[in-house]
Amino acid sequence: MEKKNKLPFGKKNYKLMLLGIAILIIGFVTMSMDGEPHGFGFLGLTLGPIIVMLGFIIELFAILHNPKDNK
Q1: Could you tell me the residue ranges of all domains in the chain?
Q2: Segment 42-58 mean pLDDT
């Protein structure tokens, strides 16, 4: 008899989701650290949004990753 997992995602999915959330927070903090007026410097317009997009890509991968592959 197989043990049925009641959670919708596997352990690896949840770890990737937490990693994605941490990267999202780092990206938003990076954007807020920009010293230029209205955030129009390098941190606010370039580096921060790239980090945030990376966080969203990791979140998407975490959601779409097949939990059957988790070991």
Answers
A1: 11-65
A2: 97
